[in-house]
Design goal:
By secondary structure, this protein is mainly beta. The chain has strands at 15-20, 29-37, 49-52, 57-63.
């Protein structure tokens, strides 16, 4: 498993665990497939922001 801080590690259709904005305080992960990569920079300390196939937006915490 990777931490999801490097944009190069994230691909469309990848199964990932993300933390949604409303779940940041408790750190609950939501799982789904990457539909769109929203972070433009090559790395981000809190995880690359993606849109899942469910339409939910969050930062990648783990790559499955």
């Amino acid at each position: 498993m990777s931490s999801g801080q490097k944009r190069a590690d994230i691909k469309y259709g990848l199964d990932v665990g993300v933390v949604l904005k409303e779940d940041q305080a408790i750190g609950r992960l939501t799982y789904g497939k990457v539909q769109k990569i929203l972070t433009n920079s090559p790395t981000h300390p809190h995880g690359i922001k993606v849109c899942l196939n469910t339409g939910e937006v969050g930062r990648v915490k783990e790559i499955l």
